[in-house]
Amino acid sequence: MTAKQIFLTVAILIFYFVMETNSRFEFTNLNCTSFDMGIGEFEYCNLKSINRSYKYVSGKYKLHQIPLPIMKLNFIMWKRLNGYRPFLYNITVDACRFIENPKSNPVLKYIFDSFTGYSNINHSCPYTSDLIVEKLPIGFLNHRVTEILPIPEGNYLFEFRLIRLKSIFASIQVYFTIS
Ligand SMILES: *[C@@H]1O[C@H](CO)[C@@H](O)[C@H](O)[C@H]1NC(C)=O
Ligand SMILES: *[C@@H]1O[C@H](CO)[C@@H](O)[C@H](O)[C@H]1NC(C)=O
Ligand SMILES: *[C@@H]1O[C@H](CO)[C@@H](O)[C@H](O)[C@H]1NC(C)=O
Ligand SMILES: *[C@@H]1O[C@H](CO)[C@@H](O)[C@H](O)[C@H]1NC(C)=O
Q: Which positions carry the signal peptide feature in this UniProt record (predicted)?
């Protein structure tokens, strides 16, 4: 099957979970790691709780090399069973080509659309200023994940690896549960 067919199949399968309107999305952890300080580093990357209903995620990747070099983005979805196992998606794209044509990858486009409204990253290459995600509200994600494209209950990890010349220079791990 092509990526598009897989996406459609999955979309149809999870359609059945739409009935479970009580499902809830909760961030459990966030782990941003810089492996190559020559390229950049995370100045912050955190989850803040203002009160029971208002929580948000913020992060800043400070560029040490300008512009940000041509890179590949590898997205892996993991689900916790006995330890985390790859689940459904393991996608690698050329980051600049994807940004210029997000429709080329519906899965990544869905994720991208979930946070770009709260960031400064929705523009074509080159990237010459620090990458910032500011106060992305969890309520917004909860709506997107559980009502627009619900996924089955469980513990998940979305991992994003930024790759240049076959080596990972930064990674972002987003742990969440759907209950
Ligand atoms: C964060 O991610 C890095 C890179 O994958 C890993 O080495 C480290 O153990 C992780 N830290 C935590 C607390 O999970
Ligand atoms: C939570 O904090 C936000 C922002 O300060 C505020 O607008 C909202 O009313 C608060 N909600 C509750 C239940 O206190
Ligand atoms: C993702 O796919 C690539 C290419 O097929 C493979 O080399 C890599 O091991 C996979 N990663 C995981 C975590 O399964
Ligand atoms: C990203 O930018 C493009 C072009 O300016 C725009 O059409 C699109 O709606 C933007 N996407 C988001 C999620 O803001």
A: 1-23
